[in-house]
Amino acid sequence: MNHLVSPSVLTANFANLKQEIEMLNSSNADWMHVDVMDGMFVPNISFGFPVIRSIKQYAQKPLDVHLMIVDPDRYLEDFKDAGADGITVHLEACTHLNRTVQRIKELGCRAGVAINPHTPVTLLADIIADVDLILVMSVNPGFGGQKFIQNTYKKIREVKELSKEVNSDLFIEIDGGVDLSNAARLIQAGANVLVAGNAVFASPDPLEVISQLKKAGS
Length: 218
Ligand code: DX5
Ligand code: ZN
Fold this sequence. Notes:
binds zinc ion; 19% strand; binds D-xylitol-5-phosphate; 8 helices; alpha/beta; TIM Barrel
């Protein structure tokens, strides 16, 4: 499958959110990545339901919602109602991950599980067959614009290997410090969804960066 690009709106200009979303609508992006932070699971707070609903009002592409919040079960339905097409929860934030994943699927959303840089891929062994997407964090979650962690390449290969027999359609998404310098190598390692915040929104030509990310590795 050709890889997807999911620009992270965390780095968008929130005073011009409508224009930013329309820019993404007109781009080669596949999804829009929406980062929700609660100030507990991560040391930062981003935004919640009213902002997601506003994004959804204009978005013509699926919303790829990444929950960096503790005990996400409390809000799954609210995120679905606010416009999420996919919901990714953190393995480290869920006590009953299997139940959480089933609930996301029952809501009709793509179900994803994210792992932090220090979390071994082996912990995914008993959930990988049940999910649509694994998100490998390539920075410590909480902020845009951080430096990419090199150990991610190894982890992508491990996820790919683990999913081979049991979930060959799996989305393997990479999030944090992704840019044109590492995109091709990430795809080579087995990634098929690239999230990019800073690389897109801090660029003078976001449309071009998105196009280049789409072409990376080909
Ligand atoms: C980090 C978020 C990312 C972030 C990526 O906690 O999950 O999605 O927005 O931003 P960049 O691409 O700037 O690292
Ligand atoms: Zn994210």
